[in-house]
Amino acid sequence: MSIKYDSVMPWGRSFKEYRSMFALSEHDLKKRIVGCGDGPSNFNAILTKQRGSIISFDPLYRFSATEIRSRIDKCYPEVLEQTRKNSSKFNWTNIRSVEHLGQVRKTAMEEFLTDYSTGREEGRYVDASLPKIPIGDKEFELALCSHFLFLYSESFSQNFHLQSVEELCRISSEVRIFPLVDLNAKKSRHLEPTLSQLKDGGFDVKVETVPYEFQKGGNQMLRVRNL
Ligand SMILES: C[S@@+](CC[C@H](N)C(=O)[O-])C[C@H]1O[C@@H](n2cnc3c(N)ncnc32)[C@H](O)[C@@H]1O
Question: Where are the alpha helices (DSSP H) in 141-190?
């Protein structure tokens, strides 16, 4: 059986996972950071507590905290069920079981929900969708995109991927994207054409192995810079 969702799931990873999947150093965390598709992750909440600079863009942020909570509650059993049925596609070393996965995600999403209303008032959670982010050129030093591009390769075209990466490079000096596999832990079919078009367009493109691997084989991050 394959993992297949009707829409992009509101599912949030933790600050610790972001640090590991994007190989974020202490120096990186002091940069002006933009997160695209941060959804209900607690990365923004925790980095803000640590006095970091971050704005997250996601179409999810058009909704109130109550509406987001009910969306999370609706998708939660489905994601856990599909993960259980496809458990051989995941590494159960750090996250030990489907139940443990549920706890880790729920903790991160609760931290997000606690921070959300304040963060929205402060302009840290902004409703916007790739491939167009309403921000001037190079406003950020580091753009992060976790578990949206390449992961949902069946739902978005290769052209969407290229335009989105170019847009992230427009608003930020450096872009990191993780993972490079799709929902079924297969290398994204959009990866190679996107890499080659980015190289042709004069971007510096690197695929790097990182110390995070929950989906089997999903331990690579794409780093893109404008030359
Ligand atoms: C699976 S969640 C990942 C959340 C978070 N980045 C993480 O890793 O925990 C994917 C997120 O992508 C967001 N999304 C969907 N379409 C988008 C778009 N066109 N531009 C930016 N984000 C989008 C969804 O709302 C959702 O919050």
Answer: 158-171
